[in-house]
Amino acid sequence: MTTAQSLRWSCLGAAVLIACEGAAPGDSVAQTLPPPAPPPATSPRTGTEASRQIDASRRTAITEATARVAPAVVTVQTETIERVPVDIFGMFFGGAQQRVAPGIGSGFIIRENGVVVTNAHVVSNASNISVMMRDGTTYPARLLGEDETNDLAVLKIDASGLPVAPLGNSDDLVIGEWAIAIGNPFGFVLANSEPSVTTGVISATGRNLLGGAEGSGLYVDMIQTDASINPGNSGGPLVNGAGEVIGVNSSIYTPSRGSVGLGFAIPINRARRVAEDLIEHGKIRRPWVGELLRTSATSNPRDVINAGAILRAVVPGSPAAAAGLRADDQILRAGTRRVRNAFDWEAARLSLRVGDRVPLLIRRGDREITVTVTVADRPEVSAPKVTVLREIELTTLTPTLRAERGIRSAQGALVTNVSQLVRDEIGLDVGDVILQINSTPIRSADDVARAVNQARPRTVIRVAFERRGVNYYSDFVIR
Prior knowledge:
This protein has 479 residues and is an alpha+beta fold. It is 23% helix and 36% strand. Strands 22, 23, 24, 25, 26, 27 and 28 form a 7-stranded antiparallel sheet that branches. Strands 1-2-3-6-5-4 form a 6-stranded antiparallel β-barrel. Strands 7-8-10-13-12-11 form a 6-stranded antiparallel beta barrel. The longest helix is centred in the first third of the chain and has 16 residues, at 3-18.
């Protein structure tokens, strides 16, 4: 092949890219090729400047916000001991063995000395908890406290100088502003400990979840976002465009167990208040007003939404009674919050703290009045406690507790705290009222302690108790 032929093939081969033009048939391609252009005169800094421009074009509010919060996002690993039947006979006759079930979620650091916020359902019943940083460093963690009602928990690891997630203000959210979910979806399926980032917008605020949510508990006054939240994201931060945590990712609404663009987060202002109580007291000081609302006659959520927040009764001696509230009063507003139904009122109560003085706008008959309620601790908090078998905490049933909880029995011992072992083995739970042990009627918490102490070891003890207005019994043996 001649040089001219070689050049001709080179041009034809490159025609698609450089559109060789001006070569008439039979001409020597060597004559039609333009002389090579001299290299552009550039300074040695041009490449660096171009790189900087590319970097600047890639940086957005989302990347800056992620860089600010992601170092404080952690993976929460748990181990839970489960009892499983050994075989088909074990399902019917109680034979079971124990197995360790791993769990995983997300969290974020709020204090540089290792205080971590996550969801209560992430660490529920865990026998072992550890926290992994984004670089893979793992610390054993202890549970400082949890609040199942708000689905929040606070952990502590022994470390210092840790990155802290800046907390924002969830009361001034703008519908449509950026929302960034950071966490560890699907755990170690993704093969490393770096958090994942998904983005969307704030879809709504003040959402009440009436059912069907992937998570736990009744969720009220939630932030809704279309940023993808998947299993493993629970407990991670929801972040705004300024790089501030505005919520704790908690649940999704899904028919398929996957994200469909309906994610929900606990507002950070509420989470901050709960965390402070858990850090200081180890438990939440539950605000108590002493009002009892009417409930819908049907289970249709639409009826509940439109029912209003109407009192059916007021607990004697309660803050509501002291403020002058009466049966049939309708709560229209609590502070600055509009109250349209029982869920709105529950959301308002969750934002209260013990000692707050809250103005309530009330409709009474055909007029509207304002009363001020001073929020108190729930009555069982200040009542004397008795601990039985080192596993059950009890207080004596009082008329106030009866009215507050709608308990039918006139006397008994209210269960205020109980271990998971007792839940599994005996079936007792918080809120149950012990009425009788063997043949001994129970009039006080001390009666329970005496009856259990008098029972002989390895003999069957029968405990009768009330739960939600229905009486049950359970047999157990002190080993």
